[in-house]
Amino acid sequence: MTAIDVRTGAATSDPPRSHNARRRSILVMVGRRMLFIVPVIIVVSAGLFAAAAISPFDPLVGYLGTRYMTTSEADKALIAAQMGFDNPWYSTYWTWLHAVVTGDLGVSRSFNQSVAQVISERLPWTLLLVGVSLVIAILASLVLGVLAGIRKGGLLDRTVSGLCVVVQGLPPFVLSLGAIALFALTLGWLPVAGLTDGGADPTPAQVIRHLILPVAVLAISQMPWLLLAVRESVVGSTGEGFVAGAVARGIPTSTITQRHIVPTSLAPFVNIIGVRLPELVVGAVLVEEVFSWPGIAGAIVSSARDLDMALLAFLTVGTTLTVMLGSLLADVVVALLDPRVSTDG
Question: Residue 46 burial (CB < 10 Å; 0-12/13-18/19+)?
């Protein structure tokens, strides 16, 4: 079996067994990484309960609320014993772990709802925010990164590179506050926060209008790393021999860009997406809090403040699992796009 080398244009031998070996090596990598996920989840969850045991926050404060100051010390001790707040952390952890394994996620004290209900009500809004932001960031970074890399040193390249350096130094909450000050308070174009206007039903028009600012902020906060990765990859690709050969053969620049430069730039780009997933999670939490978006972020903050371990532990494990699976997916895609990438890691 023969194939055309996109770099040289020459026919190369490409036996099926090499493809099979590559697929097997990728499957082995996936299996190895999946096995690694289990001990990581155990360590993270156990570490969370251990850290909560020495936390300065008192779970009684979150449980009693305004009644905390008027409750006697004897009653506080009785409630703490009944709620299990005085139990050793490893006992609490084992109880939680056994319940989760049997399908019982527990009840959130912060929201007075089952953990499953809290997640089902809030997760879709977080997925909407993060999903739209990530799609916009990826598309914009690909387009601008390719154009800037092809025209290295040009006006567009200098402009986007400078903006990337500035945005990299600004935390998402600073971008959020700046966007609110300009577009909501000064210009009055968009609402300050929330899912809808006060008392309004969550119609698609209302949700879209309130989604614009948080999506824009989260997308812009993620773009610098993605855009610069594409730019650097494109700049490197334009200096390769296969591009020079394509130019010498008179192939149009647009064809060279679409068929040679962009495909070879995708692998590093996908890898950066996988590496930056934790930052995307943190950015989403900050943006949701600033814009009062009813997603998972508010649940994370509330559960951490009140030491609501049933909800906090599930959210922590879920976030860790999401990041690890996202990173694994990115590595698989990179391995499929670029045969030179090792699968031993």
Answer: middle
Terminal Cα-to-Cα distance of the chain (whole angstroms): 30
Report domain extents, the chain: 2-55+105-337
- At 4, phi and psi to the nearest 5? -95, 125
> pLDDT digit of tens for each residue in the chain (345 aa)?
444 444 444 444 445 557 788 788 888 888 888 888 989 999 999 999 998 888 777 777 766 766 767 777 777 777 777 777 778 889 889 999 999 989 889 888 888 899 999 999 999 999 999 999 999 998 999 889 888 888 888 898 899 989 998 998 888 889 999 999 999 999 999 998 888 887 777 788 888 999 999 999 999 998 988 888 888 888 777 666 666 666 667 677 677 676 667 777 777 777 777 777 888 888 888 899 899 899 988 888 888 888 888 999 999 999 899 888 888 888 888 777 767 666 765
Contacts of 173 (CB under 8 A, 6+ apart): 286, 287, 289, 290
Say what the pTM is.
0.79
d(CA 183, CA 99): 47
> What superfamily would CATH give domain 2-55+105-337?
MetI-like (1.10.3720.10)
Task: In whole angstroms, give the CA distance from residue 334 to residue 338.
Answer: 6
Radius of gyration of the chain measured on its C-alpha atoms: 25
- How are beta strands 113-114 and 107-108 bridged, if at all? antiparallel
User: Residue 114 phi/psi, 5° resolution?
Assistant: -65, 150
Other CB atoms within a 10 A radius of the CB of residue 19 amount to 12
Half-sphere exposure of 217 (CA within 13 A, CB side): 32
